[in-house]
């Protein structure tokens, strides 16, 4: 088990293992007792996962074993060809992208790529991109527009890299340019938040016609720890900040930021990756089917109306 809130489940599963070992060693029939405990595990899972707090969802969204953009690309698309470099400075491993086939049609796929272990995380800069990464993403988007390919983005980052080198190379400008250029793309743009969608680093891949979120993903202008540090002068109050920020898939669907929530198995996407791959595939088929009915001008107008409607409320 990965999380503190799963401790009651872990204890029950350990008891089951002990009973099975004891029954085997002493040649006893304890199937009734084991079945009773297995039912308790099932009931406890249903109880815990049906009522997760925003902070608990943050923990799941950040989990190291959660599927990465690279895994989604491999599972959902065929003939993926990765394209590297921003044609200005370098290639950024924190963002991957390229051309692929989806259901027999060419698409451009781009994603924040965090590491799958410590070594990989260092190589990927923990999924936090430099300006080079955002310029690479924009280069691929403009290429997609030229050849009339839909753009599909997978968002999974704590935010843009805040280091000195990134600022010197124009971090703010690169993100701002992505926002402007994405708003005017004349091809369908679909973004899916698969883990943590943090700040402008996430928004640089998030100006789209359709935005979807995995059930345990988050999307926010700032991390709960960062918000707690600013608002409460105490990062340990992150759970209160997570509640206030309204960062969960349910919150953002209700607020009109997200266009839909994609189901995950109990415990998170890492528990059954095939299930999540199939769920995303279904969403992509439906979304692309709807967006292909619109011409370039209509796609731009639909995108504009989507973002203009966010934050409008009537009493």
UniProtKB/TrEMBL annotation:
The reaction(s) catalysed by this protein are: N(6)-carboxybiotinyl-L-lysyl-[protein] + acetyl-CoA = N(6)-biotinyl-L-lysyl-[protein] + malonyl-CoA
Residue runs in coiled coils? 9-47
* UniProt key word Transit peptide: no
Supply the alphabetized keyword list.
ATP-binding, Coiled coil, Cytoplasm, Fatty acid biosynthesis, Fatty acid metabolism, Lipid biosynthesis, Lipid metabolism, Nucleotide-binding, Transferase
**Key word Magnesium present in the record?**
no
Q: Say where the protein is mainly found.
A: cytoplasm
In the Enzyme Commission scheme, what number(s) does this protein have?
2.1.3.15
Family annotation (Pfam families): ACCA
GO molecular function annotation = acetyl-CoA carboxylase activity; ATP binding; carboxyl- or carbamoyltransferase activity
Its GO biological process annotations read: fatty acid biosynthetic process; malonyl-CoA biosynthetic process
Subunit text: Acetyl-CoA carboxylase is a heterohexamer composed of biotin carboxyl carrier protein (AccB), biotin carboxylase (AccC) and two subunits each of ACCase subunit alpha (AccA) and ACCase subunit beta (AccD).
Q: What protein family is recorded?
A: Belongs to the AccA family.
Q: What does this protein do?
A: Component of the acetyl coenzyme A carboxylase (ACC) complex. First, biotin carboxylase catalyzes the carboxylation of biotin on its carrier protein (BCCP) and then the CO(2) group is transferred by the carboxyltransferase to acetyl-CoA to form malonyl-CoA.
Protein name listed in UniProt = Acetyl-coenzyme A carboxylase carboxyl transferase subunit alpha
From what organism does this protein derive? Jeotgalicoccus meleagridis
Q: Which gene encodes it?
A: accA
């Amino acid at each position: 088990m990965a999380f503190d809130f799963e401790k009651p489940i872990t204890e029950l599963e350990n008891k089951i293992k002990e009973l099975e070992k004891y029954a085997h060693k002493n040649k006893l029939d304890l199937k009734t007792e084991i079945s009773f405990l297995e039912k308790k595990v099932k009931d406890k899972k249903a109880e815990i996962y049906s009522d997760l707090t925003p902070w608990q969802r943050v923990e799941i969204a950040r989990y190291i074993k959660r599927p990465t953009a690279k895994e989604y690309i491999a599972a959902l698309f065929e003939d993926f060809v990765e394209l590297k470099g921003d044609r200005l400075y370098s290639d950024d491993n924190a963002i991957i992208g390229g051309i692929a086939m989806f259901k027999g049609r060419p698409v451009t796929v781009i994603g924040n790529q965090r590491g799958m272990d410590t070594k990989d995380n260092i190589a990927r800069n923990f999924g936090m991109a430099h300006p080079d990464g955002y310029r690479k993403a924009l280069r691929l988007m403009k290429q997609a527009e030229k050849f009339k390919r839909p753009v599909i983005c997978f968002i999974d980052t704590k935010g843009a890299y805040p280091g000195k080198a990134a600022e010197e190379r124009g971090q703010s400008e690169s993100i701002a340019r992505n926002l402007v250029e994405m708003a005017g793309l004349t091809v369908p743009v679909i973004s899916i938040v698969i883990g943590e969608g943090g700040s402008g680093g996430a928004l640089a891949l998030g100006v789209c016609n359709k935005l979807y979120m995995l059930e345990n993903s988050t999307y926010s202008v700032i991390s709960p720890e960062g918000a707690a540090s600013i608002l409460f002068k105490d990062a340990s109050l992150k759970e209160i900040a997570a509640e206030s920020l309204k960062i969960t898939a349910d919150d953002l669907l209700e607020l009109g930021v997200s266009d839909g929530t994609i189901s995950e198995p109990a415990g998170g996407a890492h528990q059954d990756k095939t299930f999540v791959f199939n769920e995303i595939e279904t969403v992509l088929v439906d979304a692309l089917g709807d967006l292909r009915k619109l011409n370039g001008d209509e796609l731009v107008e639909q995108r504009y109306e989507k973002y203009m409607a966010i934050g409008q409320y009537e009493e």
